[in-house]
Amino acid sequence: MTPTDPLYHEIASQLRRSITRLGRRLRAERSGGALSSNKASVLGRLFHSGPITAGEIAGLEHLQPQSLTRVFADLEAEGLIVRRRSDRDGRCWVLELTDAGRAVLTRDLAELDTWLASTLDGLTETEVRLLGLVAPLLERLADAEPARVVAEVG
Length: 154
Fold this sequence. Notes:
By secondary structure, the chain is mainly α. The chain is built from six helices and two strands, in the order ααααββαα. It has two domains: about 30 residues; about 110 residues, Orthogonal Bundle (Arc Repressor Mutant, subunit A). Strands 1-2 form a two-stranded antiparallel sheet.
């Protein structure tokens, strides 16, 4: 099988639809006081990556740094992140998760995980285990380099 195989496109279409719907559902299940998706993404990135620059966060999240400027400012004003000089390059600023930021992120993610776990309860054990195998693959897809679309020359 190759990426031009119709089966690849059928699976890609099914994945896109189901992931989009699940993403919408997860956003809908967030409580009123929960972090916005962008704030949760930034805090999550800092949690996993440690202190990094705003540009690095934007690149890893596939966004323009300018589109996150307000998010960074809000998170800093709320005491969820701090901005400090880089240990590697004193000319650069890095963003770092605070203890308060870690606590808010943990609370928000626990709330969504609880909802999702209760939803998994409606599946068979085999289906749940299958999703456990699929989750890391979805992470790899999310982190994949952008594909180059090559026009067929005939």
